[in-house]
Amino acid sequence: MVSRHVGCLFLALFCGTVCGEREMGALAGEPPRDRPRSNEKAANEPCYRWVEVTSKAAFAARDGAGALVFQGKMWLLGGWNPSDKARFPRVCNNEVWCSADGVRWHLVKPNTFGTPDFDPEHDWEGRHTAGYVVYKNRMWIVGGDANQGHYQSDVWNSRDGKTWTWVNKGQPVPWGPRVLHYTLVFKDAIWVMGGQTLPHFAQAPERFYRDVWKTTDGVHWTKLQPKEPYWSARGMLGGSVVFEGRMWILGGGTYDTPGHKKRDYYNDVWSSADGIHWTCHLHSAPWHPRSYHDVAVFDDRMWVLEGHHNRGGNRNDVWYSADGVHWHQVPNTPWKPRHAASVFVHNGALWMVAGNNMQPDVWKLQRVPASAARAATSQAAPAGRSQDSPKRSSKDLRGEKEILQSAFRDPLLPTEMIFPPISTLEGIHRANRTMFFPVKDFFDAYRELKVQRTSHLVLDDGATHVLKVTYQLRGRRYDAYAYAPLKRIGSQAALIIPGSGHNQSYPIYKRDPGNYHRGIYAALPGSCDRYVFIKLNEDCLAFHNRTKKLHLHCYVNWQLEHGGSYSARYLVDSLAVIKFLRGQYGKVLVAGLSQGGRAALLSAVQSEPDAAIVASGFTVLRDTVQVAGHNQIILPGLRKQFSFDAIRARIRRSSTQYLFTYGEQERGTYRLEVEKHLTKRFFAGCDNVTVENHSGGHAFPTEVIKRFLARHGWE
């Protein structure tokens, strides 16, 4: 039985009181009644709860502080508080704080700005509402404000928050002078958009920008020219939104100047895949126009939080959308109105810290089960009192185990199967409904699927974690699985897709020295979180007659003739896991060997991760190279959308860095790849493709991968 191997089952989005935090009972499940509902049923909307983590954090109150998630911690950079002369001697300071839990905050770098200890050659001036990003495994500060009587046109970065490097020393950014710009990371570059000058703070011609710039090093910048129509001049957005492969601008505004005494506020929604061509999804979203608000991506949704408008002042409303068109409000927000807060997405929650309420408070928003939300709504605790955590009944636990038995058959034992063997025609039909997708369902699946929730399964050895991603595709709900790190350690993640063979996932996860994927273990940087995709057990593909397997010629062919594909199912599952990881990490890598390499390639051309490693998994000699044992060909009918030319065209258009490798000791097809350099010639002219042979066999070449990742900023 599986149940003896599955000890504890924890939902990552568990509902309840955590570490003595105070729950205010603010729950969401549907749009407010005074606004038109989304065309999506309210019953299908998730439920969220705000939790006050602390009202008295160790740092002083501030607004406009930089907010970054880096190396598994939340980082707070600088900020503004003119009333606290001791900690902010020049209105803004250059402190750096960090925390892993939101309760205990550690001062990494004390303020030096405005003190005799300040060294302008090795430390940045105090500032707020600057550009803040994580890029190439460093924290970056891009530009600043005008509170010191001049414009801060510098760029800094740091690996540890304590020691900072002036990246563009002697070369001010070409897009200055400007403040209140919108900054984000997209397609392996730092982007700066919009902003303005403030002539009454620092001398400069009065300008309101609607331009777009990008850089890969902080020194050399490229200006892009957006094509009309696109967004009006603006800035004053905190945080950033990169969602569904696009950059998004959600509202924003302009600050008053001597020549433009009225502030502008917007609530329109725009997005772009390249910074040049922009799409207006809404001219007027249901949330109020605002500036100095914060935006983020959390739980596979875009979020708009707090902000300011001259009518009504600071705000405390919170909105989310899965598509930029249909918006839902989280009602009964318990925290005080504010603007220019510091917002993080960390540890399965959306965090909000400080802001213009000028209090050092810390809050987090978590998704909770709908049943818990209903129970909390019917018997809400008074403000200021803690509610007991809802207890899960034994019936609930049994239900989870039944789900595991039917969808995730004991991965710990290589002799067991994720799905039971099939010996009847009825079993074939049942398997067809659960394991097999029509081939066409893989095409455009990444764009269409929606990640609905994630949870973590902890197996009873205490050292095995499994990520469960529940997603919806074309009206049906499915679950995908991946072995996950015990603790998140960085801002980079790698998803390894196993090659053929029974239950390859677990040996990869446990670093079995006898497993043929072992070369990937040492190739990945130590700061990269490793996930191993769990495929449906290939043994299900053998039609069992008593103890004899009839192999490829019976069951699999029957499925192919009826339009079903085992590989289409696991490829779509892998896309769901990749989509989740891209929403959680700054950089994502997809890697595969052999059949896993082919799968990694097909998944990467849809999902466009930051990098993809295809080890002995692709050849231009034939489309359907991957047939192993009684496994089936990857995606019959592949050429309909993924012909060689189509794959090359997709790769050329993307920003994903690809590595194709082949071993000199390979046999057959891949031996010809080594001798004839077929793939290298095929991808000639694709600047983002590296093809490199190695002296080994059918394996991940550790040193080749290390060099490739180092060249592209994986550290």
Describe the fold and architecture.
With 715 residues, the protein is α+β, with helices and mostly antiparallel strands. The protein folds into two domains: 24-378, 6 Propeller (Neuraminidase), CATH 2.120.10; 422-450 and 487-711, Alpha/Beta hydrolase fold, catalytic domain (Rossmann fold), CATH 3.40.50. Helix content is 17%, strand content 31%. The chain has 14 helices and 40 strands. The chain has a ten-stranded mixed sheet with strand order 1-29-30-31-33-32-37-38-39-40, with helices on both faces. Strands 2-3-27-26-25 form a five-stranded antiparallel sheet. Strand 37, helix 9 (595-607) and strand 38 (611-615) form a beta-alpha-beta unit. Helix 8 packs across helix 9. The longest helix has 19 residues, at 566-584.
Strand order of the largest sheet: 1-29-30-31-33-32-37-38-39-40
Task: Just name the CATH architecture of the largest domain.
Answer: 6 Propeller
Into which percent range does the helicity of residues fall? 10-25%
- Can you tell me the CATH topology of the largest domain? Neuraminidase
Q: Supply the number of helical segments.
A: 14
Please tell me the total number of domains.
2
Topology, pairings included?
Layout: E1 8-10, E2 22-28, E3 47-54, E4 66-70, E5 73-80, E6 92-99, E7 106-109, E8 131-135, E9 138-142, E10 155-158, E11 165-166, E12 182-185, E13 190-193, E14 212-215, E15 221-224, E16 237-239, E17 242-243, E18 246-254, E19 264-272, E20 278-282, E21 293-298, E22 301-309, E23 313-321, E24 327-330, E25 342-346, E26 349-353, E27 362-368, H1 370-378, H2 394-407, H3 425-434, E28 437-438, H4 445-448, E29 450-458, E30 465-473, E31 476-484, E32 492-497, H5 505-509, H6 519-523, E33 528-533, E34 544-545, E35 548-549, H7 555-561, E36 564-565, H8 566-584, E37 587-593, H9 595-607, E38 611-615, H10 639-642, H11 644-653, E39 657-663, H12 668-676, H13 678-682, E40 689-694, H14 702-711
Parallel strand pairs: 16-21, 32-33, 32-37, 37-38, 38-39, 39-40
Antiparallel strand pairs: 1-29, 2-3, 3-27, 4-5, 5-6, 6-7, 8-9, 9-10, 10-11, 12-13, 13-14, 14-15, 17-18, 18-19, 19-20, 21-22, 22-23, 23-24, 25-26, 26-27, 28-36, 29-30, 30-31, 31-33, 34-35
